[in-house]
Amino acid sequence: MLFEKLIGQRSAEMEKKSFGNTGLEVSRLTLGCGAVGGLMTNGESADQDRAIAWAIDNGINFFDTAASYGDGASEHNLGRALTGKTKGLVISSKVGIYESDLSDIAGAINKSIEASLSRLKLDHIDIYQLHNTLGREDFRGQLRLDQILDEVIPAFENLQKSGKVSFLGLTAKGEVEDINELINTGVFSTAQIFYNLLVPSAGGAVPANYPADDYKMLLKTASENSVGTIGVRVLAGGALSGTEERHPLGMQTVVPIGSDTNYTTDVQRALKFKPIVEAGYASSLTELATRYVISNPLLSTMEIGVATLLELQQATAAVNKGSLSDEVLEKIRKVQASFVTSTH
Q: Treating both helix axes as pointing N-terminal to C-terminal, what angle do 326-342 and 285-294 enclose, rounded to 10 degrees?
C-alpha cells in the first residue's frame, strides 16, 4: 500500500543550489548510479527507465555514474534511459587510473572518455571526475600526487579544450593533504566528499581519536575555493539504515569509506541514533541521515544510490523535508561524541 501510494504521488519541486564556479544549478539530491545501491547496474531495464523518468519529473537534474560501475553497465543503462535527452540535466562520470595505465596516463584517460561517451550516447560529459584514492593504495594501485599534477590534469584540461568535458572534478578520498593540494590548484570545479552521521569531519571538527578519517572541514575548504560539493556515502554504504540486510540488487559486501571500522560496527553505531528517531524528530534512520547531510549549508548536493524506485522516492521526500533543527543537530553531536569514549 505504501509503495503504491508513493508511486502515484508527485513530489514537491526540489530545491536547487548553485554548484561552485560552474554556473550550474543542481538539485539538492543527486541520483547515484553505482553498484552499492545496484538499480542502475543490476536492475531490470524497465525499472531503471522508470526511476530515471520519475527523478527528472520530480526535479532531480543531476545523475552521477562511472566507467567502473558494473564495468560500464551503469553508463550504458543511464544512456539508454536518457536517450540523449539531457537538456537541463547535469551528467557526471569518472575515470580511474590503474597500475597498468601508469605508462600512458593520458592515453588511458582518452580511451576511457571515448568509451564513456559511447555508452552514455552523448557527445560531451558535464563533469568528469578522477576516481582514484589520493595518496593511498586501493584496488587500482597507487596514483601519486605528482602524477596527477603532471599527467592527469593536463590530460583532463585537453578534454575540456576538445569540448568533450565541461568541468573537472575529483573524488576526495584518501589523504586530506593531497585532497587539499588538488582543490587549491583551482583546476577542479567539483569534489565528491565523504560525509555522513558516522564520518562528520568534512563538516565540522572532530577529536583526534574519533574513529574515522579526519577530513578537516573539507566542505569549508571547498567553499573557499568555489568548488561545488557532492556529499557521497551519506548512508555509509547502507549501514545508516540500521540493518546488515542487503537488497539483492546491491553490493552484498560493502567496505566502509572514511570509517576506520567495518560494516557491522557501522551498523551498530548507526543504531545509537535510533532514540532520536523514536523521539519523533525523523521517521526513520535513513531520513535522519539524509537530512543531517543537507543541513550543512556549504554542501551543494547529496548523492544517493538506490535499489528500487521506492528508495528513490523516500530519499526525495526526506530531502524535501529540509534541514534538521539546531536542537536535533546537538543531539546528533552528543551521539557522535560517544563513539570516541566507547571505542578507546
A: 110
The shares of helix, strand and coil residues in the chain, as percent rounded to the nearest 5, are 45, 15, 40
Would you state the cell numbers that stand for residue 203, as one nine-digit string?
563538516
Question: β-pairing, 190-194 with 25-27?
Answer: unpaired
**Residue 192 grid cell:** 565528491
Secondary structure (DSSP) of 17-77? EE-TTS--EEESEEEE-STTT-HHHHS-HHHHHHHHHHHHHTT--EEE--TTTTTTHHHHH
C-alpha cell at 261: 571500522
CA 104 to chain centre: 28
pLDDT tens sequence across 265-320: 999 999 999 999 999 999 999 999 999 999 999 999 999 999 999 999 999 999 99
Q: Which residues pair with 90 in a beta bridge?
A: 62
Could you say which residues of the chain have pLDDT below 50? Answer: 1-7, 343-344
Q: What does the alpha-carbon distance between residue 113 and residue 234 come to, in Å, rounded to a whole number?
A: 27
End-to-end CA distance of the chain: 46
**85-95: string of b/e by CB count within 10 Å (b at 16+)?**
ebeebbbbbbb
CA gyration radius, the chain: 19
pTM: 0.94
Counting other chains too, the contacts that 259-262 makes at CB distance below 8 Å and 24 or more residues apart are 259/198, 259/199, 259/211, 259/212, 259/213, 260/211, 260/212, 260/213, 261/211
Please tell me the distance from the alpha carbon of residue 287 to that of residue 284, in angstroms, as a whole number.
Answer: 5
What's the one-letter identity of residue 156?
A: F
Q: Comparing C-alpha atoms, which of 81, 87, 172, 80 is closest to residue 124?
A: 87
